[in-house]
Specification:
Bound molecules: tryptophan, zinc ion
CATH superfamily of one domain: Peptidase M1, alanyl aminopeptidase, C-terminal domain
Largest sheet: 8 strands, mixed
Low-confidence stretches: none
Strand order of the largest sheet: 6-5-8-3-2-11-14-13
CATH topology of one domain: Zincin-like fold
CATH class of one domain: Mainly Alpha
Number of strands: 30
Distance between the termini: 20 Å
Length: 856
């Protein structure tokens, strides 16, 4: 392993040369693929002076290198190849290299690798250097021509197909792109095809490529793609720009998907769907990720990042766009709640622990470790705040200017903020702190009411606290858009949503002329990614749950009610509150509300979320006590709803044809929630029947989860495994579900038992995540006092690391919350982290993560 070097944003310098054209030829062979690269180079006028030519390259066997046809005698080092300055012309020249690589031995799934006999690539962030010698940095953009030679039926690369023959194909991508967007796929694949005509009349051939046998599960992905293409034209005025657009599904893939120009590569779990094999959540994820990768064509590809510190420029914006799209396709209210659940569950957790970093970091050791919830999800929140502050029109003008000005460029966050400043006349200097300061602000609220003769005055005073994060002890106040509405005690809205702009540490906002003391609805739509500290009583929360006109805050009121109660149950030993069961029952049974919303309202705060909340409120979280309190609350809710649950279940049973749309999915979600509650009352009889009758994977999983949750379901697990043994994506659910719902004292042992199965293919990232990730997600199991959870996860991280450091490092975030817990647990977790950190030959990826989590 190379010794870890820190890279700093402040060290950015333009590259010494420009690349005018790249010609690549691949002669594919599993153990010895030859890559011929012809780079047309010239000195970069933006980097004056004489420079060496430094090309990145790792694990390449150099066969030859020629400059303008003449052989050079050069030896690469561990990270690249240097051509000395005195050999380089000051005019344009051509550098040709020939290298040999071994895709079959590539278990890291970065660069060119093989998955079930198929060749594929993953180059973001720095994988292209494992394919050939090249300036592997996003600000070097060039058009690519690619020739693939292999005796395989399908040979794909970026751009448009130019020519093909027996065992070869040529592709040309006219749009200059950085190397991280390069892609190549070759294998025995079949296509699900369709066609899209852009609004200016360009006909685009669309293909979703999968292994033979999977082609009947591509319909939803294709449909999502077509809707995405249309949406980007309508919402952002962005058209597609090539003759073809291809998507390939790969079984072995480190993340979700990749936006390679004209040739997106996907984890097969985000492409393949049928009602029998995929849940409604899978469908929603497929739609969102297909859109995300497609939207990158403009926000990421046409306009890319100057350097990897600017990653949020493309990721935050593209997540924001895919969230808008999903909201338009489904329900904005439900989508917002789901996005906030995910933000709090992953990003707040990150921001409040040792891995906290700014949306735009200013240093890193391994860039793969910065594809985080902070860069993606908080990056999207920051754009949402910007849009709220400048308004829809201002946002539209700024985006038009952004596309206009930076098309074909590699841009920065400064460029991004400047288009907003120019388009709207607003100074964003203070707003920029959202990009440079890490940590989740806390927002305290103080209310004052002054009844007067001409109507009363109501004053809201906010105080923001920006807690220290690693490397950032002191922070400055941020601009916080706080959307507020005021309700009358009778439930009418007296002040509709207004956005208060907080810019100081403490700031007051006055509302005059009110007839009576209002009830405030604060942070509507979750208008800023902050922890709202608004202490109020259960009566007010229940009132908002019943009356708030803002759907997010209506849900949030129920959530806060549950959290207050659960925290008190754990910290003070109190019981389940009637106010909560009553208020929740009202929502659950209110047929005027969207079933998807009702299902979300019925979902109790998760154990990890409660642990964080307890920690925030000064109590050391006890995982066992949290689990017990949460189960007790679920039981009380089930008992309160007992008389109505059968009717609810019957009313929600669809007998028509399957529909994947949001309405049908929402009904299935509420039905699943009802099933879970019934199981707590009847020992699982209804859930067993539901399992037997299920016609969709959504219903199957809901029934199985309801059974496992009450310690039943052994027979159903066996049936499931017999039925789906040959379907890896479905078996991933089988593994994950039973580990996630295992009793805490058995979770680690069950995991170990399951990892001994022959179909536990731990080199497959999906399978590894389904098993090890499920244990890490079983809160009381992972944090079990025995330390077995920590030990098993650490064992597997260490086993995976030498083969696939990227996935090992990503999964190591299981440990990021270790300092929340009691000294005995901390000691166990620290021992596991020390064992990881002290392992000789650890990857740069995992050693950076372990070091940061230990606070090194
Ligand atoms: N750019 C991809 C996306 O957000 C994600 C990505 C980054 C990725 N690095 C990767 C995917 C490595 C797979 C493997 O859409
Ligand atoms: Zn992305």
């Amino acid at each position: 392993m190379t010794d870890p070097r820190t890279v700093y944003l402040s060290d950015y310098r333009p590259y010494s040369h420009l690349v005018d054209q790249v010609d690549l030829t691949f002669r594919l062979a599993p153990k010895a693929t030859r890559v011929e690269a012809r780079l047309h180079l010239r000195p970069n006028p933006a980097a004056p002076g004489r420079h060496v030519l430094r090309l990145d390259g790792e694990g390449l066997r150099l066969v030859s290198v020629r400059l303008d046809g003449a052989l050079l005698d050069l030896t690469p080092d561990a990270t690249g190849l240097t051509v000395p300055a005195d050999l380089l012309p000051e005019a344009p020249f051509v550098l040709e290299t020939l290298v040999e690589i071994d895709p079959e031995a590539n278990t890291a799934l970065e660069g060119l690798y093989m998955s079930k006999g198929m060749y594929c690539t993953q180059c973001e962030a720095e994988g292209f250097r494992k394919i050939t010698f090249y300036p592997d940095r996003p600000d070097v953009m060039a058009p690519f021509r690619v020739r693939i030679e292999a005796d395989l039926p399908v040979l794909l690369s970026n751009g448009n197909p130019v020519a093909q023959g027996a065992a070869w194909a040529e592709w040309h991508d006219p749009w200059p792109k950085p190397a991280y967007l390069f892609a190549l796929v070759a294998g025995d694949l079949v296509a699900h095809r369709d066609r899209f005509t852009t609004r200016s009349g360009r006909a685009v051939d669309l293909g979703v490529w999968v292994r033979p046998g999977d082609q009947d599960r591509c319909g939803y992905a294709m449909d999502s793609l077509i809707r995405s293409m249309k949406w980007d034209e309508d919402a952002y005025g962005r058209e597609y720009d090539l003759d073809v657009f291809n998507i390939v599904a790969v079984d072995d893939f480190n993340m979700g998907a990749m936006e390679n120009k004209g040739l997106n590569i996907f984890n097969s779990k985000l492409v393949l769907a049928s009602p029998e094999t995929a849940t409604d959540d899978d469908y929603a994820r497929i739609e969102a990720v297909i859109a995300h990768e497609y939207f990158h064509n403009w926000t990421g590809n046409r306009i890319t990042c100057r350097d990897w510190f600017q990653l949020c420029l493309k990721e935050g914006l593209t997540v924001f766009r895919d969230q808008q799209f999903s909201g338009d396709m489904r329900s904005h209210a439900v989508k917002r709640i789901e996005d906030v659940l995910m933000l709090r569950g992953r990003q707040f957790r990150e921001d409040q622990g040792p891995l906290a970093h700014p949306v735009r970091p200013d240093s890193f050791i391994e860039i793969n470790n910065f594809y985080t919830a902070t860069v993606y999800e908080k990056g999207a929140e920051v754009i949402g705040m910007l849009k709220r502050l400048v308004g829809d029109d201002g946002y539209a003008r700024a985006l038009d200017l952004y596309f206009d000005r930076h098309d074909g460029e590699a841009a920065t966050i400064e460029d991004w903020l400047k288009v907003f400043e120019e388009a709207t006349g607003r100074d964003l200097a203070q707003f920029k702190r959202w990009y440079t300061q890490a940590g989740t602000p806390r927002l305290k609220v103080h209310e004052a009411w002054n009844p007067g003769t001409e109507g009363g005055t109501y004053t809201l005073t906010f105080t923001q606290v920006n807690p220290p994060t690693p490397g950032q002890p002191k922070k400055d106040p941020r601009v916080i858009p706080i959307a507020v509405g005021l309700l009358n005690p009778n439930g009418d809205e007296v002040v509709p949503t207004t956005v208060l702009e907080m810019t100081k540490g403490t700031q007051s906002f006055r509302f005059d002329g009110l007839a009576s003391r209002p009830i405030p609805s604060i942070l509507r739509g979750f208008s800023a990614p902050v922890v709202l500290d608004h202490q109020t009583d259960a009566i007010e929360r229940a009132f908002l749950l019943a009356h708030d006109t803002d759907p997010f805050n209506k849900w949030e009121a129920g959530r806060a009610l549950a959290k207050d109660m659960l925290v008190s149950m754990v910290a003070k030993g109190t019981g389940v509150s009637k106010a909560w069961t009553e208020a929740l029952a009202q929502v659950a049974l209110d047929d005027s509300l969207d079933p998807a919303f009702r299902a979300l309202a019925l979902r109790l705060p998760g154990e990890d979320d409660l642990a964080q909340t307890l920690h925030d409120r000064g109590t050391v979280p006890d995982p066992e006590a949290i689990r017990t309190a949460r189960r007790r609350a679920g039981q009380a809710l089930a008992e309160r709803l007992a008389p109505q649950l059968p009717g609810l279940l019957a009313a929600l049973t669809d007998d028509g044809a399957f529909s994947a749309d949001a309405g049908a999915a929402g009904r299935r979600a509420l039905k699943g929630a009802a099933l879970g509650l019934i199981a707590r009352l009847d020992g699982g009889a209804v859930a067993k029947a539901a399992y037997a009758a299920a016609s969709t994977m959504t219903e199957t999983v809901a029934a199985l989860a309801a059974l496992l949750d009450i310690g039943e379901g052994a027979g159903e697990l066996a049936q499931f495994q017999a039925r789906w043994a040959a379907a890896p994506l479905v078996m991933d659910k089988w593994y994950a579900l039973q580990i996630a719902l295992a009793p805490p004292e058995h979770a680690a042992a069950l995991t170990e038992r399951l990892t001994a199965r022959p179909d536990f293919d731990w080199k497959n990232p999906n399978r590894f995540r389904s098993v090890i990730g499920a244990l890490a997600g079983n809160h009381a199991g992972f944090h079990h006092a025995s330390g077995a959870g920590y030990r098993v996860v650490a064992d597997w991280l260490l086993k995976l690391d030498p083969l696939n450091p990227q996935t090992a490092a990503r999964m190591s975030t299981a440990f990021e919350t270790w300092r929340r817990y009691d000294p005995a647990r901390q000691a166990q977790a620290r021992a596991a982290l020390d064992r990881i950190a002290d392992t000789p030959g650890l990857s740069r990826d995992l050693s950076e993560m372990a070091g940061r989590m230990l606070g090194a």
